[in-house]
Amino acid sequence: MQVIDASSIVYAWDNYPIGQFPRFWELIHNACNKGDRCIPRPAFDEVGHVCPDCADWLRDAGTKVMPITNDVLIEAARIKGQLGIANDGYHPKGVDENDLLIVASARVAQSELISNEAKQPTLPTDKKQYKIPAVCTHIAPPPAIDILEHMKRSGRTFG
Hints:
- The protein has helices at 6-15, 22-34, 41-50, 52-60, 70-82, 97-108, 132-138, 147-154; strands spanning 2-4, 37-40, 64-66, 112-114.
- It is α/β, with parallel strands linked by helices and 159 residues long.
- The protein has one domain: 5'-nuclease (Rossmann fold, 3-Layer(aba) Sandwich), CATH 3.40.50.1010.
């Protein structure tokens, strides 16, 4: 199973329109419908806020929306501690609470995260400034992949 972040599905929605990339969306639809792709509640809520049509499509595709369980909250708190974030002391350039819940959801599900958040070629010395890809690579593996890598891995032609 793979876990989808809002950044990746909204990026795909905006850059790979269904009318022009129907096979790509068929791949996503089939994977969601079979339970091979899911989305954590905070990510789904974000998609609904920024791109309601995409959220409707995810719902129609039968995408499982992962609840935030106690295990997810415990894992998010563990990651937060490893980043050195105390209370609500999130850095504006780093992950926020929803990001931690999304990463923790993938970890608890023992699944890879698909996220289009920007990679940081040079890691900040302050871990509070880590974005999702850095958190997944250095704090809470497995590393995240972006939607283009997901497309390449499928081995399918979408044009």
